[in-house]
Amino acid sequence: MNLFFGIFLHGIGAFSASVCYTPQKKTVSWSWQTYWLMQAAVCWLLLPVIVAWITIPALALVLAEAPGDAMWRSFILGALYGIGGTAFGLAIRYVGFSLTYAISIGISCVLGTLLPPLYRGELGTILSGAGGGWILSGIAIGAMGIALCGLAGYAKEKDLAKRSNTQTVFSLAIGLPLCLLAGVLSAVYGFSLDQGQPIADVAAQYGAGHFQGNVIYLFSNTGAFLSTMIYCIYLHVKQKTFREYVSLPAASTAGKTALPLNYILAIITGVLWYTQFFFYGLGHVRMGAYQFTSWAIHMIMLVLISTLIGILLKEWVNSSKLTRFYLISAILTLIVSVLVLTYGNYLGAS
Hints:
Blueprint: H1 2-19, H2 32-55, H3 59-65, H4 68-119, H5 123-127, H6 132-164, H7 172-195, H8 197-205, H9 217-239, H10 258-284, H11 294-312, H12 321-349
Helix pairs in contact: 1-10, 1-11, 2-9, 2-10, 4-6, 4-7, 4-9, 4-11, 6-11, 6-12, 11-12
């Protein structure tokens, strides 16, 4: 039951990740970098400190005793993850959201899962153990389901383009390398958490229990914030948008309430983003022998839940029959993937 509860907690985290960026649509007269830096300050800087302080007993002693090399590795890998997130945003401009999502998340799912045990030289031993074959199959099926989601999304974009008769900017030559970069560097976040585990082990010795993973976010998330902040400040300087933090253009139709509302929406985004990994950590410690599968389960459930939310919001109503076929196939494939991964973890736990 501990295993199944862990997967349930991963599902809560994946749901938070699926909806965390929806508030962005309601912001008024804010550039991308203003909104992005504000929400990043909440989820990658402020909340990791607050939550670690609340949930980790004797935090100062934990940090004093934890190995410094683990802190640095987690921080640097987190910074690379921040670069991957920026590449993801840029790739969307050239190949669209669906293809970017499918390629980047698919790569992140596979690499982020297999890289930690491969680095430790444990992958062969793990996969040859009880349930190992099921785990590998579940990851492969999940990557296939993510690819089908991308295909459905691409087909949907083509359906919309036919109806609107508008030309869109599409450049695979630029977008594909950005997708590959985003996928590889996003996978590094799972590796960052893995490399920070010695810090969590010290926290566990001081009674942190299932909350032990929260101490790792002090390093992985602040690393991501650093690289994100550098890029956002570069855009602020280039586009002269620093003033957006204190005032909006006079032509803004929302009046005096728009600026406080923008801050509230950015804070909601940051809280939701951090919530996904708060529950990720709670689920991860319950995964038993195959903890490394947490990243695959999180990524697959994220894509599955976000797709189901899109259906509930009627985003696919006017799609063609072929597009809906791709969509249904993707959902069924993702569900099978989660079930296969769950069974593999069950065999390993047994």
